[in-house]
Amino acid sequence: MDAQVVEGAGALLVRSTDGWLSTPADGVEPVELDFSDVVAMLRASADQERAATGWEGLDPVRGDAFVEPPDSFVGLVRGGWFGIEGYGTGRALLDAVDLCLLDALVEVTAAAPLYDRADAVVRDRLGATPPSREEWGARLRRLVAHNRVRMIDEPPAPVAVVEPEAAPEAAPEPAPAPAPNTLWRRVRRALRPVKRLLRGAPAPAPVVEPEAAEPVAVAEPEAAPVPEAAPDHDAPASSDPFASSGGTGEPVRYLDSPRVGPEQAGRVPVYAVWQVEIGPLLSLGMLTAAARDHDGGRLEEHFEIRRPEDPASFLEDLRDREGPAVLLLSNYVWSIDHNLALAAEAKALNPDLVIVHGGPSTPKYADDCVRYFDEHAPLVDVTVRGEGEVTLPAVLAAIAPSLPEVDLGLLDGVEGLSYRDPATGAVVHNEDRERLSDLNVLPSPYLTGEFDHIAPEAWVCVIHETNRGCPYGCTFCDWGSSTLSRIRKFDLDRLTAEMEWAAERGIRAWAVADANFGIMSRDVEVASRIVDIRERTGVPSFFGFNVAKNTTKHLTDLVDRLVSANVTPYFTLALQTRDDETLDAIRRSNISTDHYVSLAASFRRRQLPLQADLMIGLPGQTVASFSDDLQFLMDHDVPARMWIAQLLPNAPINDPEYRAEHDVQSDEHSMIIATKSFTVEDRREMLRIRHAYTVFERYGLLRHVARFVQWDHGVPAMDLFLRVVELSREDPNRYPLLNWIVRYFDWFNVAPVGWGSFAAEVRRFVNQEFDVPLTPALDTVLALQVSLLPETGRTFPAEVDLDHDYVAYFRDNTYSLWTDGHNRPTGRPLGDYGPATFTVVGDPAGRCREGMRRPPDARNERMMEEFWLSGHWELDSPLVQNHSEVAAAGTYTALDDQVPDDLPPEPERASRVSENVRIRVAERAAV
């Protein structure tokens, strides 16, 4: 479609599998439309009604052919037409009859019944006579040609319907699931990369338990989701129906119940319940293991301490109980709503249930704690602060003498907790408990059997602790209430045995919950032991960790070791900000800029991914400082992930004195919405900038255009993005497609009308707003930019002839990033480079085959979607950006060609990742 088609007034409509939606130019959310509204808009935009042309003479789609709709696409309503554009196919103008055909196509179907449904739509909505089958077939062929309908070779496989077995008459009603809760659903969505990671992996073994957990897990306390990856064909499989799916090859037998030992009447059950959508929690296993071990096991005389279990198992057992019971809940940002819903259901079953809350999202500050008790009464009986492995046994020992009744008044004086006094009704805050000096007195739940009844498919990521504590005091952080504390270490032999436990079960993704992995030299030894296990067992394939904030002394060494064994490290540098005033306000210091960029160069040489975390909403921050941080990362070609600051209940930022000092304001979800340094509107602007950066840089819609304008014309890349944001607010119709991108792309990851039209508008934008001349150099970068964007129906390899060699231009301007890491563009204009052919090798992520994914809840600030954190649109080309997800996939062959030929190699720093890429590509080809 030509640029003239989209200039001026017009309505951009989205056709998706959910129906028709309007995206107003000055709106913030799409508006659902009835099809009659769409027809009315089409007719209202025309001076006279006209029939579409362009389908005449096309080969009709036969009635027995199968077609399916794409997830969504955007069209422009203007002049009585609905304009669409396919990749490289030019424009097509659809009339109301065409839209009837689209409206009838909602799922995979044969063409013949589709035509029948379209006939009915024409009669009902247009009051007209339907076209002939030949005309329908030609109209459908045009939609296929423009990639707005897909043809498929085979019909979908029929879904087998299995009749449920009749339950015995005497069987009790099944336990209802906890109340639906949007937060844990968002967690599950955010972890979809983890699910995709396991596609194609060896099938997990059957287990004794009748119900297995959904394979989703979350790292504790703040480890990131594991990236999407190729199947790991190094991991051995087992045919033993009771064995794990990988690991040592020795069969692993699983226990059939959370109960430990024979049932004994009179004991009070203690339940530790983990969320199916999240997976087993290390923290709960630590609690039950410590309670079981306390005082030589004496607590088990009074309590039946059950192994950690899922809600269904817990509710089923609780339903058959009478008398008191104890429920342990470990609260995190992602689990607290679910836990409260579960507590409500359990309390309804057993009013005598004592509910003990712990974890980072259980408030410790006195006023917040009282509010928590009051707001969630009667679902909160005890809250535990700090390390619960000592406090929980003390709680159980204190109330044991009162059994079979439970007298919470006996908790008077027990350190590390708050409780509601049954005599007065007041919330009592006992003294804090000192941290453990020796962590090795705590029994390991992995080695003492706390998780031996849980099948491996419940573990997508198994969490280990090598140490506790953090010497830093960043005010926004609450690392288990262990900030500003010395680091206490778990024994290495214990840790190794725990990792062997995970390897025996074939669990492919591991992570450590350390606040600063790599801060100590022994962390290199940990990496070496992981390598040894990997070489013997084939697992892990992925290892996630949080990098030390102020030292990276050991980082390169430990990463080299992991990569040498084909273990993909997954981490990010927690930059947060480079602004001095913000760093001072949050009591943080970063590594020097020289050190940072040198580290980036070191990783770049190894072809290892490097990304940086930034935060939005920190005290001291401004719109300008946030934009400057993004510009710095773009200058150094380091992708950014942006997190929205939240008041964690026990972080120093939530201390009343600190909040007053910095005028920290929050909303009902504890999201920071204003401080002394920025207003509510400033925060909204930062979120708009986040959106623009994510779309234009991470998804790549303007990645190379921005660099060309910066390198050739001296306009900082962020200035382009900021101008788009500004115009979207002040004059949204001036550049309607750019405006649509910054308003709605997080809803619909698709081209606005088409990439050709988008490029034409970008050409006009940079010319009119920044005086960039309309030259072959600009046309070169626009053509290249479009070639790197996915679209349904594209095939590869794909070549594009360029007037100027953009790849050489890009490599010259980024050469210094491979040497010392500093940004030193050459100053040589793109127009000085001769012609070249640019090749897009392929689409390893399948964006063009499967369609671009629609984020289900991209506007949620509490639990951010994959869109913000790990989404990308990288095609395989010499310009592919090495995101963590790209590196983990192992199938982007063009990464091999990015290392400059004349780059002096570092001592003993051969590119092991390149070899691993070749290995994985060969493995996948063999499969």
Description:
- This protein is 35% helix and 13% strand.
- The chain is an alpha/beta fold.
- The protein has four domains: 3-152, no CATH class; 180-254 and 455-571, no CATH class; 268-440, Rossmann fold (3-Layer(aba) Sandwich); 586-645 and 680-919, no CATH class.
- The strands form eight sheets. The chain has a seven-stranded mixed beta sheet, with helices on both faces. Strands 3-2-1-5-6-7 form a six-stranded antiparallel beta sheet, sandwiched between helices.
- Strand 10, helix 8 (282-293) and strand 11 form a beta-alpha-beta unit.
- Helix 9 (311-319) packs parallel to helix 10 (336-349).
Q: Helix tally? A: 31
What is the mean pLDDT? 85
Strand order of the largest sheet: 11-10-12-13-14-15-16
Q: What class would the helix/strand composition place it in?
A: alpha/beta
Please indicate the count of domains: 4
- Give the C-alpha Rg: 30 Å
The major pleated sheet works out as:
7 strands, mixed
Helical content band? 25-40%
Strand content: 5-15%
Total DSSP E strands: 29
**Sequence stretches where pLDDT stays below 50 over 5 or more residues:** 1-8, 161-246, 907-927
State the separation between the terminal residues, measured CA to CA: 41 Å
Indicate the overall shape.
globular
Write the layout of secondary structure elements.
Elements: H1 3-6, E1 11-16, E2 19-22, E3 31-33, H2 35-44, E4 66-68, E5 72-78, E6 81-86, E7 90-94, H3 96-104, E8 109-110, H4 111-126, H5 133-145, E9 150-152, H6 182-190, H7 192-197, E10 268-272, H8 282-293, E11 303-305, H9 311-319, E12 325-330, H10 336-349, E13 353-358, H11 366-375, E14 382-384, H12 388-399, E15 417-420, E16 427-429, E17 461-464, E18 467-468, E19 488-489, H13 492-504, E20 509-512, H14 522-537, E21 542-544, H15 555-564, E22 568-570, E23 573-576, H16 580-585, H17 593-605, E24 612-616, H18 623-635, E25 640-644, H19 656-662, E26 665-666, E27 672-674, H20 680-698, H21 703-713, H22 717-730, H23 736-744, H24 755-770, H25 776-787, E28 798-802, H26 806-814, H27 816-819, E29 836-840, H28 847-850, H29 866-869, H30 884-889, H31 912-926
Parallel strand pairs: 10-11, 10-12, 12-13, 13-14, 17-20, 20-21, 21-22, 23-24, 24-25
Antiparallel strand pairs: 1-2, 1-5, 2-3, 4-8, 4-9, 5-6, 6-7, 14-15, 15-16, 18-19, 26-27, 28-29
